[in-house]
Amino acid sequence: MSKETLFALSLFPYLGFLWFMTRSGKTPRLALIGFYVLLVFVAVTIPAGIYAKVHYGEALANVDWLHGSAEFFLTISNILVVLGFRQAILQTKKP
Predict the structure, then answer these.
(1) Is 82 contained in some domain?
(2) Do you know which InterPro entries this protein is assigned to (predicted)?
């Protein structure tokens, strides 16, 4: 199985994860937004990878400005997830 196929197939379990996390109503809102921003990262990375291959003849990882721009969305996603769960922990510690 190619890495591209595996990448495409991995989207379905993640969408299921998002569906359950959203339906549960127990996930901190900011963290949930962070999990959804990860989909933005995926949506940006795919065309960026295609552009890198077509325009530069390189893999996305070898085109620094393009790779860094795509990774920005992963960083934002991670920050939102951490801040969301941090906020939830702090709220449970309040008297």
Answers:
(1) yes
(2) DUF3593
Range of the domain at 78: 38-95
Give the DSSP letter of residue 54. Answer: I
Residue 67 in contact with residue 73, Cβ under 8 Å? no
Q: What are 39's two structure tokens?
A: 């989909």
Question: Which burial class, exposed, middle or buried, applies to 12 when counting CB atoms under 10 A from its CB (0-12, 13-18, 19+)?
Answer: exposed
- 29 within domain boundaries: no
Residue 46 makes CB contacts below 8 A (sequence gap 6+) with none
pTM of the model: 0.85
Specify if 28 maps to a domain. no
Residue 13 lies in a domain: no
Question: What is the count of structural domains for the chain?
Answer: 1
Q: Is 31 within 8 Å of 90 (Cβ atoms)? A: no
Identify the pLDDT of residue 28: 96
**What is the number of residues in the chain?**
95
**What mean pLDDT value characterizes the chain?**
93
